[in-house]
Amino acid sequence: MARTPSNMLPLKTKAPDFLLIDTITDSVLSLNDLKGDKGTVIMFICNHCPFVIHVNKALVAVANDYKKNGIGFIAISSNDVDNYPQDSPENMKIHAEREGYPFPYLYDESQEVAKSYSAACTPDLYLFNNELKLIYRGQLDGSRPGNGIPATGEDLRHALDCLLNNKANNRQQKPSIGCNIKWKIN
Fold first, then answer.
1. How many CB atoms lie within 10 A of CB 100?
2. What is the pLDDT of residues 46-74, one digit of tens each?
3. What predicted TM-score, i.e. pTM, was given to this entire model?
4. Residue 185 lies in a domain
């Protein structure tokens, strides 16, 4: 397991727009189509990464808990499917249905969206406010495969609560750790 940290995109960065296919519905969707009224969580994930597999249930729980509060959730996979066929769009759809993803699971074939967000690993998480300005990036929580800490989404939940209650998030934002995005070799 590679242990790659987030690049920690600067806070207040405007969310780059995108137009990607949702592997669950086969619809082409934009950031504007999917953003939440109060905020938007963008997650770079994939099917096979042990770090993502470890937190899948927590990602689903956080999304289910906060969607009703006007938060949009968007998952994106940017992995090279030629070398990692388990992350293909067909397998993404199967994986999303099996895990009960309550959010779209978009495929970034060109990898341009991952690059525009400076995404480095899976999972890599970003929270944007209602103006699509970055207010949190980094880890879901301190849980990692094998470290014995339960995956609860504590860090992301705290950032979401701060956003919804119009409070400053003064906690240190820690990078996520996960598998590196599987970049295409040109």
1. 11
2. 999 999 999 999 999 999 999 999 999 99
3. 0.97
4. no
